[in-house]
Amino acid sequence: MSLPITKPYVIENVKKVWEEINLFRPNKRKNKLSKPQFDTINSLCLQKINTMTDLLWEINSIPTITRRIIFEMMNFKLSKSKYHVAHKDKKDLHQCFIDIGKTLEVAAISCQSLYYIYIDGYY
Question: Which distant-in-sequence residues (6+ apart) come within 8 Å of 18 by Cβ?
């Protein structure tokens, strides 16, 4: 099957076109985690991520500018007064971590990735 082309066309370099309209490929960073870091981040969430590879894949698939926005959203969330109180017990503290981790649940980002982005945002 072929498409009828009635107007002349020019094949362009897509990078050149992107530059002309100020659209660029998102920057991504390659992140690393140690086993203790993975275990710590994973322990903060009810739903565990099975492997460090899965978590790193998710983190590394998020463009740098999006990570910055996520960091700012987490910062705003944590500035609320309900997170600046003494917790009654371990269960209450753990529930607080779960609530924080659900900040971007709609965006389908695991709470482990959120915690990593938040911690990494300060370094």
Answer: 24, 25
Domain count, the chain: 1
What is the chain's length?
123
Residue 22 lies in a domain: no
Sign of CA dihedral 106, 79, 44, 67: positive
DSSP state string for 18-78: HHHTT--PPP-------HHHHHHHHHT-SS--S-HHHHHHHHHTS-HHHHHHHHHHHHHHH
pLDDT digits (tens, 9 = 90+) for 7-20: 777 777 877 877 78
In a domain, 19, yes or no: no
Range of the domain at 76: 27-121
pTM of the model: 0.60
Q: Which helix (H) or strand (E) holds 5?
A: none
What number is the average pLDDT over the span 71-87? 80
